[in-house]
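Section 5.1 Outputs to date
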Amino acid sequence: MKAIVYRRFGPPDVLELADVAEPRLRRGEALVRVEAAALNPKDVLVRKGRMRWAGALTLPRTPGYDFAGQIERLHPSVQSSAGVAVGDEVFGMVQAMRGGTCAELVAVPTDELAPRPRGLSAERAAALPLVALTALQALRDLGELRAGQRLLVNGASGGVGTVALQIARARGAQITAVCSAANAAMVRALGADEVIDYNEQDPTSGERRYHVFFDTFGNRRYADARRVLLDEGRYVTTVPNARSLRQEVLGRLGLSRARLVVVRSRRRDLENIATLVEVGVLEPVIDRVLPLEKSAEAHAHLETRRARGKVVLTVG
């Protein structure tokens, strides 16, 4: 099968289209023929070798965590009660550091995929899993965001940010979005009540106080965010580094109100996301769609950190 492969860590040009062996199914897995895969900042960090602390990253490897496609085969261990069948159109995110969705076929545990939202193309469905799971688990589980509470989203025009705005709007929050002036109209359309242009104002120095400070960009420390948090306010970040990992440990011990969202691929949450799409609450935001063979170009664009929404690759 065709897949994007890199044999050493480095810049986008380490990526190449290659012929590789089809994945072998393990217990509880489905073989999915990929129609579209979406990129995330995590793909860039892993490709550069900056996530080796998180686990063994063997080479060569195939990037990609998000996917949408069709089930081609099931491992014999998968029972009919699993709720999946050959031919199902599905979407999902492969867990942890595994990767591998930038390929014609990918093996996925059946509890890490769900039926694709009705009426949604593969490209649009692939744009959702990681960012929507991250935003949902960050705001619902760690931020404990409730109706009427004030939320600040730093990096509101990116992949996670654009979804967080929509989920927060559905939960009835009052939303302040931080982005450039060029993206102000877009984030207002997605649910922001107020927009802060980071070129004009430091979002950690205003008078307004927030229940949740959601940093999707990774450039606002908890020590700074505390200045605009209520006493009971919570800080949630998506970016793992030494500082955020330390705060996560303290947060789990109840010694800090800062948390790091470690996204988990759960079918139940994917089904909830699909429902939000189907009832018109959530709309995937896509910056651009490129063919699989232009993966290096897609990675280079993602590295600029200027993508408005998701970068998606079509497969086949």
